Amino acid sequence: xxxxxxxxxxxxxxxxxxxxxxxxxxxxxxxxxxxxxxxxxxxxxxxxxxxxxxxxxxxxxxxxxxxxxxxxxxxxxxxxxxxxxxxxxxxxxxxxxxxxxxxxxxxxxxxxxxxxxxxxxxxxxxxxxxxxxxxxxxxxxxxxxxxxxxxxxxxxxxxxxxxxxxxxxxxxxxxxxxxxxxxxxxxxxxxxxxxxxxxxxxxxxxxxxxxxxxxxxxxxxxxxxxxxxxxxxxxxxxxxxxxxxxxxxxxxxxxxxxxxxxxxxxxxxxxxxxxxxxxxxxxxxxxxxxxxxxxxxxxxxxxxxxxxxxxxxxxxxxxxxxxxxxxxxxxxxxxxxxxxxxxxxxxxxxxxxxxxxxxxxxxxxxxxxxxxxxxxxxxxxxxxxxxxxxxxxxxxxxxxxxxxxxxxxxxxxxxxxxxxxxxxxxxxxxxxxxxxxxxxxxxxxxxxxxxxxxxxxxxxxxxxxxxxxxxxxxxxxxxxxxxxxxxxxxxxxxxxxxxxxxxxxxxxxxxxxxxxxxxxxxxxxxxxxxxxxxxxxxxxxxxxxxxxxxxxxxxxxxxxxxxxxxxxxxxxxxxxxxxxxxxxxxxxxxxxxxxxxxxxxxxxxxx
Length: 607
Description:
By secondary structure, the chain is an alpha+beta fold. Helix content is 45%, strand content 18%. The strands form 4 sheets. Strands 12, 13, 14, 15, 16, 17, 18 and 19 form an 8-stranded mixed β-sheet that branches. A 5-stranded mixed β-sheet has the order 9-8-7-10-11, sandwiched between helices.
C-alpha cells in the first residue's frame, strides 16, 4: 500500500531507528495522525506494507502528503510528547476522548467545627481532600451516608456563622447542631475523626473504636449513647459488606475494555483507600487502532496524559501483559511526580475487580447496541448496501464444536429492535463426519427452513452465513430444494487475521464481494448479529458438551446413581465444583459416605 503522492520508499530509506514521534500530514498541511515508536523506521514502515492494513489505515495512508518525525532520547519521552501533541491538535485518525472534566472530591475543612463539602476545581482552601470520585453522584451518595452516620455539618461557612437557631438538618438528626453549640467540641471532634477514618478506608480501626465506645457507654449505664454507637456499627457493616475490600490504603484504578460491532467501551473502577468509591464508562472515538490491545493502550495515554486534572493512583491495573506497560509507568510517574505502576492482571481481589470492570463494559456496549435510534440507523444503512427496500427480520447461523465433539449450530434472529431471543434456536448436529462444518451448516439450515415452510412461519428478509462462498453455495442449494424464495443470502467471510473490521460480504446472487469501511453502520449491524450467533453457538455447545461429560464421568463411579448425582449437583452447583472439592467437602452431601467421597475424588484426580 503506497500513497500516490508520497514517496514512502525514499522517506523510509533515510529514516532513523531511534525512538520518537511521527506526524502524518495531508492536503493543506492538515495534521492527520500522531504516533510514537520505539523504532521509528520499523513502525512507520508498517504503514506502507502490501497487506494487513485495516480500511481506516488504508484511507489514512492514501491521504498522506508528508511525514515529520521528532527523535527522542527514550520511548517514555516519545510517549509524553505524543499525548501532549494529541491533546493540542486532536488529529482525526487518533483515538480521542471527548471528556476532560475535573473529578469531584469530598472536602473536610479545618477549624473548631470542620465541615464536609462537595468540591471540584482548584484546591485552594485549607483542609483535606478525599477522592477523586468518578462522578458528582458518587460524592453526593457518600455525603448522604456520612450525614446519616456521623452527623458532621455540611453547611457553608456563611450559613453556619449566621444561624440564630438550629436548621432542619439538626431537627431530622443529620447534624449535631454545632452552630448552636448543642454538641461539645470533643464529641464533635470525635465524629470528625470517625469520618476521616472512614474516608481513608481504615474501617477495621473505625469499627474497633466504635465497639469499644459502645461497650464503655453500656458499662457506664449510658444506654442511649451505646445505642447510637450500635447503630453506627450496623450501618457501617452494611456499607462495607456491599463493597470489595482490599488490604492496604493505596490508590488504585482498575481498567478493562470491551469492543463489539465498531464500538469500544472502557470501564474504570476507582479504588481509594482500599474501597471502591465508584466507576465510569468511556466510549473513545476509535482511530486507526484495530484491536483491543491497541485501543486500550491508546486510551491509557489519552486518559492520564492528556488531562490537566487527572489524579494519578499509585497503581493502574489492566487486563493485559504488555511490554509497553513499563513505558506507560515511567511516563505517568514523570507526569505525576510520584511512582505510578501500570500492571497486568493479578490474582485475588484485584482480579475480581477486573472481572467486574469487563462485565460492566460488555453490558454497556450491549445496551448501546440496543438503542432504538442507532439500531434503526444501522438497519437503514444495511438496506442501502443490500438494495432492499425494508429489512424487518434477519437470521444468522454459526457452528461450534470441540474437535468435532458435541457439534451445535445456532440460529439467532434480529428484528428492527435488535436481538429477538425468544426466536433463537439451537440444533444438535448428528450423523456427520466430525469437524465437517459444511455438513453441519447444511443440516442446520435444512432443519430450520423445512420446519418454517411446513408451519408457514415467518421467513427472514436476510439470512447471514458465517463463512465464504462455499457456505453460501451450500445454503442456497438447501433453500432452492425447499422452494424458499425472497430471502437474501449473504456470507460473512473472516478478514485478515480474522480481525473485526476486515470482514468480506459475499452476495449470493452474483457471488460478488463487498468490503465495507470499518466505521460503516451496516457493518456494525452485521458484526453484531454474527457475534451474537457465535456467542449463542459457543454457549449451546459448551452446555451440551459439559452435560455429556458430566453424566459420563459421574455415572462411571460405582455407587453414583441418578439420586446421588442430583444431590451432588444441587450441593455444589456444577460438575466443575465437584471435581475441585476435597473428600471432606464431598462427605457433607447427603448419602455420600467417606468411601463414595474417596471414589469421586479419585475419579477426578487420576494420575
